[in-house]
Amino acid sequence: MNHVELTACIAEASPLRYTPAGIPAVNFVLEHESEIVETGVKRQVKLTMRAVAFGSLAEQAVQLALGKAFRFTGFLINARTSKSVVFHIQAIEQVLNPI
Q: What tens digit of pLDDT does each residue of 62-72 get?
């Protein structure tokens, strides 16, 4: 199953655009930072990821504040133009007490 939940901050957001089919879209750069225990050792985890939202979610997401923590839910695909990964966001919720 390709299902991702990520708590991250929006580092960058593009202006709202429209696909050739007329669907609203917005591109993001998300940043995540946390501490995770791996094989019994605490590890600092930092991640920067490209993301995109479509439709009414894009129209709402373009209004979100940069630098605030949100919980993003969606799935991953390969970018059309490269071998990198893009997170397709399907839901966003504000995180009141980020860890």
A: 999 999 999 99
